[in-house]
Structure formats: C-alpha cells, structure tokens
Design a protein that fits this description.
Helices cover 31% and strands 19% of the residues. The strands form two sheets. Strands 1, 2, 3, 4 and 5 form a five-stranded antiparallel β-sheet that branches. Strands 6-7-8-9-10 form a five-stranded antiparallel β-sheet. The chain is elongated. It has two domains: 7-111, Nuclear Transport Factor 2, Chain: A (Roll), CATH 3.10.450; 125-261. The protein has helices at residues 7-10, 26-38, 42-49, 64-76, 113-150, 243-248; strands spanning 78-83, 86-91, 96-97, 102-105, 108-111, 196-204, 208-215, 225-229, 235-237, 260-261. It contains six helices and ten strands. By secondary structure, it is an alpha+beta fold. Helix 2 packs antiparallel against helix 3 (42-49).
C-alpha cells in the first residue's frame, strides 16, 4: 500500500463491457501496459483498459510522480505473480503489486477492470484506516501539548476565528504552531481527512479527553470506526451501513463491546 500507479486512474476505473486487447500470456499484457504508460500512448491504453478510461480522470490527469515512479520501478525489476487464471504485475525492489489483475479467458489474457475496482477500493480503505489510526495518535499528542500550554484540554479540534480555543489555529508571524496541523480542517465541508471524519467526545477539560473517527462513506472510504482516549490506545468497531447514525449517538468514551483493541 506504499505506492500508487496512475493514482487517479486506478482509483476510478469504470466497469467496461466492450472487448479489450487479448494477449498470449500475462507478461505480454504487462509489457504492453508499461510501454503505453512510458510512451504516453493513449490509443494503446484505450485498447488495454477500455475507451472510456480517460473520462474517469479528473481535469489534472494522472499524478506525474506516480507515473515516473512506476517507470523507474519497472526498469529496476518486474515480474508476473500468477495464481491459476489470474496474474498481477509486481515492480521495483520491494515488488510492489499493481491493483490491476490480468485474467485468462478462452480468448486470451486481458486486464480485468471490475476486479481492479475491487482491489483499489480494498487498498484505499486500508490506507485510509491506517491514516485515521495515525491521526488518533496525533490527536492525543496534540491534547497533551495543548494542556502544557493552557493547563486544560481542548474541547474543539478547530479554533474559533481569531481564538486558540481548539487544537488548530492558523499560525501568525513569530508565533509557535498550533498543537494540531491543518489536516483536520478540510478545505471543503464534509470532505474529511483521508476518508474519515473526527469528533471530540466526552471531553473534560481538566481530567481527560477522547476522540471518535468514522468513515465518510462506509465501505468506500473506510469500514472500521475508531475511538481513543488519553491512554493513547485505539479501539475499533464495524457498525455496518448504519455507521453514521450509530456514531452520531455516541457522546461518551466507552471501550466496551463492540469496540475491540486495534491490532
């Protein structure tokens, strides 16, 4: 989960129903894909991935750094990991696997866009959940920092305008940065941080603090919800499709079931 190839493309692949280019073996398909990426050959990408893939890219297109990273890693090392009628491309010294399966049918080997969607969603959720857990630990550190400065714990993540009543406030010239960075303050309302929303719960400004996090879109940006208190131990639970409603009802920190320690 450390790298993303053509990140905007591979996070938005459509389900295609038209014929795609077929190959005698998965290595030939992988090589054709690498050549198309390296030469920026859009007609070849159309043949490999489907005519509509460009429509699912944002206006800025693919991440140039991600493309360059793939090109570099392909030159360093590439191999095919085949399990029966499914194969994956592995590149680079750490053998990173692209979330772009190549499957065998009677006509030959081709890239499976529907399976790619499933893999991409799974990897996205995994990355987002790890980011959320890291953010929970960052929150605990920020509260301790805030307490050292103010002799109390913050009851808000984002400070009121012109105030320092939350863990984050815009830094002024000559002023020390706030305990929490601006990442918890999304540019667009409801956007969240790496697919998660956060809310302080059961905050006692003299004795302790707690935070809850839940996915913006259950099953798409995340699955697990998380809570943490001043002991810096993160707990997780899967509230299913009713996650937003169930989390909204939580106002106090309680690590009892269904919460389980995050492993």
């Amino acid at each position: 989960m450390k790298k993303i190839l053509l990140s905007t493309l591979l996070f938005s692949l459509p389900l295609v129903s038209f014929a795609q280019q077929q190959f005698a073996n998965p290595l030939d398909a992988a090589t054709a894909f690498a050549d198309a990426v390296t030469t920026r050959n859009e007609p070849q990408l159309n043949a490999l991935l489907g005519d509509d893939w460009r429509h699912f890219l944002p206006p800025d297109g693919a991440d140039p750094e991600a493309v360059a990273r793939f090109e570099r890693d392909w030159k360093i090392s590439h191999r095919i990991d085949q399990q029966g009628d499914t194969a994956h491309i592995n590149v680079g010294t750490d053998s990173w696997q692209l979330p772009l399966p190549i499957v065998k049918t009677e006509a030959g080997w081709h890239f499976d866009m529907q399976a790619a969607q499933d893999e991409i969603i799974t990897r996205t959720i995994g990355r987002n959940e790890l980011s959320a857990i890291g953010a929970m630990h960052a929150y605990v550190d920020a509260q301790e920092d805030y307490h050292l400065r103010k002799q109390r714990y913050a009851s808000k993540l984002i400070s009121s305008e012109g105030q320092q009543d939350g863990l984050y406030w815009p830094m002024q010239p000559g002023e020390a940065p706030s305990p929490l960075g601006p990442a918890f303050s999304p540019v667009a309302p409801g956007e969240g941080y790496h697919g998660y929303r956060f809310r302080i719960i059961d905050s006692n400004q003299s004795d302790g603090f707690a935070l809850i996090a839940w996915p913006v879109e259950y099953g798409e940006t995340g699955v697990m919800s998380f809570i943490v208190s001043q002991d810096d131990r993160v707990y997780q639970a899967d509230f299913g499709e009713e996650t937003a409603e169930k989390v909204a009802a939580i106002t106090r920190f309680d690590a009892a079931a269904p919460w389980q320690p995050e492993e």
